[in-house]
């Protein structure tokens, strides 16, 4: 099935295939789990399936509340149909609580609630290890125009507001998250929309009561139980029910080359 389609791009966590119509792509979620720019790599059985479902859930809700995203619909266990966009080569990080690099680099205690939400930009480049950049770099080098950057930031803040409430409602603190955006051309109009994915791979999610990590830090910090944690997030959001098996049953997709 997969070899009928043209593979456009294979990344660390996903594969993009040509879509059924012009302007569309199929986004395939792999089980590959990487951190520290691929220096740490493992296949975690079933992760792609859960991320596909969680990302579908989040993007569907965002679409519904008028936040434009690339998501059209989920196709199967591991794939979703998306709109192709011209990617802006940035990772946009929104932080509500100090953790990860912010905590280590600035010597701020992990878990400190930030005085306000902070937006950071990283230039997407595997060769350079995704360096942090400022708005000045972004506009000077033309990665995005000042207007586009304003739109990106407005989008990021709206997404943060929505996600913070969504997770709070199920006993989870949204510590931080990463998004990627792109340009969607419609006739002679262009707008910035949310692309890529939002999943426990791209968010820090802490249980409000136990402070337990329910995100990719389980992998980064070798805490184990990653699938169980992602499943817990999906279960709390009402995406999968208690007894639904998420891996090890049903048809298995055969990956070619
Ligand atoms: N709607 C879209 N249209 C075009 N490209 C997209 C879209 N959504 C996501 N992408 C791109 O598809 C790729 C997804 O693959 P994946 O996330 O595995 O890449 P990656 O190895 O993590 O590398 P990257 O650091 O570029 O994200 C990313 O390069 C992402 O920017
Ligand atoms: Mg990626």
Structure, explained:
The protein has helices at 47-64, 100-106, 135-140, 146-168, 217-220, 226-236, and strands at 7-10, 14-18, 24-29, 32-35, 40-43, 71-74, 79-83, 86-87, 90-97, 113-123, 132-133, 172-186, 189-195, 203-207. The chain has 257 residues and is of the alpha+beta class. The protein folds into two domains: 2-85 and 226-236, 2-Layer Sandwich (Phosphorylase Kinase, domain 1); 86-207, ATP-grasp fold, B domain (D-amino Acid Aminotransferase, Chain A, domain 1, 2-Layer Sandwich), CATH 3.30.470. Strands 8, 9, 10, 11, 12, 13 and 14 form a seven-stranded antiparallel beta sheet that branches. Strands 1-2-3-7-6 form a five-stranded antiparallel beta sheet, covered by helices on one side. A hairpin with a 5-residue loop joins strand 2 and strand 3. Helix 1 (47-64) packs parallel to helix 6 (226-236). The longest helix is centred in the middle third of the chain and has 23 residues, at 146-168. The chain is globular and about 50 Å long. The two termini are 12 Å apart. It binds adenosine-5'-triphosphate and magnesium ion (MG). GO terms for molecular function: ATP binding; phosphoribosylaminoimidazolesuccinocarboxamide synthase activity.
Number of helices: 6
Q: Unreliable runs, pLDDT <50, ≥5 residues?
A: none
H/E order of the elements?
EEEEEHEEEEHEEHHEEEHH
Based on CA atoms alone, the radius of gyration comes out at: 18 Å
Fourth-level CATH superfamily of the largest domain: ATP-grasp fold, B domain
Shape: globular
Number of self-contained structural domains: 2
> CATH fold name of the largest domain, please?
D-amino Acid Aminotransferase, Chain A, domain 1
Q: So, CATH architecture of the largest domain?
A: 2-Layer Sandwich
Bound molecules: adenosine-5'-triphosphate, magnesium ion
Helix content: 25-40%
Largest sheet: 7 strands, antiparallel
Structural class: alpha+beta
Q: Compute the separation of the termini in Å.
A: 12 Å
Q: Output the CATH class name of the largest domain.
A: Alpha Beta
Mean of residue pLDDT? 94
> Beta fraction of the residues?
25-35%
Catalytic activity: 5-amino-1-(5-phospho-D-ribosyl)imidazole-4-carboxylate + L-aspartate + ATP = (2S)-2-[5-amino-1-(5-phospho-beta-D-ribosyl)imidazole-4-carboxamido]succinate + ADP + phosphate + 2 H(+)
Pfam families: SAICAR_synt
Family: Belongs to the SAICAR synthetase family.
GO molecular function: ATP binding; phosphoribosylaminoimidazolesuccinocarboxamide synthase activity
């Amino acid at each position: 099935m997969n070899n009928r389609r043209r593979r456009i791009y294979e990344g660390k966590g996903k594969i993009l295939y040509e879509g059924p119509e012009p302007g569309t792509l199929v986004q395939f979620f792999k089980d590959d789990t990487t951190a520290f720019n691929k220096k740490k790599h493992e296949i975690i059985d079933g992760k792609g399936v859960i991320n596909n479902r969680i990302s579908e859930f989040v993007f569907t809700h965002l679409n519904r509340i008028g936040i434009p995203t690339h998501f059209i619909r989920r196709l199967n266990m591991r794939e979703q149909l998306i709109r192709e966009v011209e990617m802006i080569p940035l990772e946009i990080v929104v932080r509500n609580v100090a953790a990860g690099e912010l905590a280590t680099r600035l010597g701020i205690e992990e878990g400190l609630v930030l005085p306000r939400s902070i937006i950071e930009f990283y230039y997407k480049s595997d060769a350079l290890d995704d360096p942090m950049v400022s708005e000045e770099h972004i506009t000077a080098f033309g990665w995005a125009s000042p207007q586009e950057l304003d739109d990106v930031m407005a989008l990021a803040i709206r997404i943060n507001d929505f996600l913070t409430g969504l997770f709070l409602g199920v006993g989870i603190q949204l510590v931080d998250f990463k998004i990627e955006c792109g340009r969607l051309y419609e006739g002679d109009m262009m707008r910035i929309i949310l692309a890529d994915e939002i999943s426990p791979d791209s968010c820090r999610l802490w249980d409000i009561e136990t402070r337990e990590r329910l995100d990719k830090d389980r992998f980064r910090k070798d805490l184990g139980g990653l699938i169980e944690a992602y499943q817990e997030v999906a279960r709390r959001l009402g995406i999968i029910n208690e007894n639904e098996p998420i891996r090890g049953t049903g048809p298995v997709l055969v990956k070619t080359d």
